[in-house]
Amino acid sequence: MTSTRNAEEILRSSNGKEHFQRLARLLVCGGGHVLRETFDSFHPPKDLSTTLKDPKVQTQLRKAKLTMDEKNCLNQPAVKSTDFDITLTFRMLRTICNLTPPATGWDRKPDDANHSLEADLARIKYYRNSVYGHNQKMEISDSDFCYLWKEISEAILRIITNINITKKDEWEKAIEKLLNEPLTSKEQKYIEELKQWCENEKDVKVMLHQVETNVKESLQHVGEDVKDVKEELKQQREDVKDAKNELLQAAEDVKKELRQVADEVAVKNQMLKNAQEILREITHDKGNLQ
In angstroms, rounded to a whole number, what is the distance separating the alpha carbons of residues 248 and 156? Predict the structure, then answer.
């Protein structure tokens, strides 16, 4: 009997579950839409295919280390932002829209006083993690719901105002309606999309971690190769030094031999001069005797 009551307690509707469902819809529908609208304000859909072929943009995308699915999405003909999932949309905003990360970075909650476009985009991402990634019970307390609803809806409205101020009233009314209207069976779909959003980013982080590991291993191998090259160059320098010393010694030996030969030649020249002098004296004496 106790087990049945626990199961009913787990499955029955509650304010906490409704809060979670409303926030999931606000993040997936509202947050997802304003991210795409923001991206389109930087890169209009009609020019997106051409923009993605720009060499500068291609370089930026290579540095972003996109997954194969994301690359395939960007390479399809007549690509548009509505083809992007939320994870890719945010990555594109960070990569090719020349946005400056908040002081706290893209993955942390921005300072409360920072209401810049970049900070509000980071808030959408941060609260996505806060609502789903850190809430396995899929329930939100009344106090947490009030705080999160205010933070997320205000960020969405500021982003919308930045894109098109004439849409602010429309969005305020739509958010108010979502807060008060009865929930339907479709709300579960937004929970699944929110879950997928989290899972996609988790996969990307795993991929980036693997890429980082591969890069470190490659750098390690390069370091070992460089070490081997240095050792080889060191040995070659030693060999050259030894060969130079041998050549210098050989040159010195040749010089000594040349000096010895020169000395011998000098001695023989002197002996020849002496012999010539003696011969002249003998010849002179002979003449006198005659």
Answer: 82
* CA–CA dist 66, 58 (Å, integer): 11
DSSP 3-state assignment of 276?
helix
Assess if residue 160 is contained within a domain: yes
d(CA 122, CA 105): 8
Enclosing domain of residue 47: 2-220
Each residue's pLDDT tens digit, 7-17: 544 444 467 88
Are the C-beta atoms of 207 and 65 separated by less than 8 Å?
Answer: yes
Tally of helices (H runs) and strands (E runs) in the chain? 11, 0
Is 193 within 8 Å of 28 (Cβ atoms)? Answer: yes
Number of domains in the chain: 1
**C-alpha pair distances (Å), 222 with each of 208, 225, 234:** 20, 5, 18
pTM over 0.85: no
The span from the CA of 42 to the CA of 215, in Å, is: 32
